Amino acid sequence: MPDDLRDEIKTMMVENLMLKVPKEQIADDLPLFSPEGLGLDSIDALELVVSLEKRFGVSVPNSEVAKQALASVNALHDYVQANRKT
């Protein structure tokens, strides 16, 4: 069920980044780092990368990959799907 993974990603983001936004308000295609989106910063990006590794066993090798993988919930979802070990 792909939606479950998106839900899990949103839960992880809200918990680990201490977002003030409930996960239900995070759209799948909302830009995570733009001011029009969630407005996350580089500290949040680092936290996300660590969280992805802990929760999904997926590592983000460099900033170029991170820029694309962390663009939105959809991008995170696709990245986890493609790189998950299970």
Q: Would you write up a description of this structure?
A:
This protein is an all-alpha fold. The chain has a single domain, classed as Orthogonal Bundle (Non-ribosomal Peptide Synthetase Peptidyl Carrier Protein, Chain A). Helices cover 56% and strands 0% of the residues. It has four helices and no strands. The longest helix is centred in the first third of the chain and has 15 residues, at 2-16. It is globular. The model has no long low-confidence stretch (mean pLDDT 93).
Largest sheet report: none
Helix content: 55-70%
Helical run tally: 4
Rounded to the nearest angstrom, the distance between the terminal CA atoms is: 15 Å
Radius of gyration: 12 Å
How many separate domains make up the residues? Answer: 1
Outline, from the CA principal axes?
A: globular
Structural class: mainly alpha
Give me the count of strands: 0
Q: Class in CATH?
A: Mainly Alpha
- Mean pLDDT over all positions: 93
At the fold tier of CATH, the topology name is Non-ribosomal Peptide Synthetase Peptidyl Carrier Protein, Chain A
